[in-house]
Design goal:
Layout (H helix, E strand, L loop, with lengths): L4 H12 L3 H20 L4 E3 L3 E8 L2 E4 L6 E4 L2 E8 L1 H9 L3
Antiparallel strand pairs: 1-2, 2-5, 3-4
Helix pairs in contact: 1-2
Keywords: DNA condensation, DNA-binding
Organism: Desulfofustis glycolicus DSM 9705
Protein name: Integration host factor subunit beta
């Protein structure tokens, strides 16, 4: 089951009795700050949750399954998430 940004905003607003508009601004600011840091090559660490970093993927060739044509895919960057030990333990034990 997916959780959308709107649902996160609704939950925080309800839990903290803050207007949704104010929570939305805060969530957007956090996400923009994280995106800026990651595009700048920096690592983002949220203690107790995990860390986000960028990794480079090498250029490669692949086959289009529909046409069978060989395609070249250039080098690109991806985001890598490593969960914290406490989050991993919570997932394993099934608690939230």
């Amino acid at each position: 089951m997916n959780m959308l940004k709107k649902e996160i905003v609704d939950q925080i607003s309800s839990d903290l009795s803050i207007q949704k508009q104010d929570v939305l601004v805060a969530v957007d600011t956090i996400l923009d700050t994280m995106a800026t840091a990651l595009t700048g090559g920096r690592r983002v660490e949220l203690r107790g949750f995990g860390s986000f970093s960028t990794r480079s993927r090498k250029a490669r060739q692949t086959k289009n399954p529909r046409t069978g044509k060989i395609m070249d895919i250039g080098e690109r960057k991806t985001i890598h998430f490593t969960m914290s030990k406490s989050l991993k333990d919570a997932l394993i034990s099934g608690r939230e």
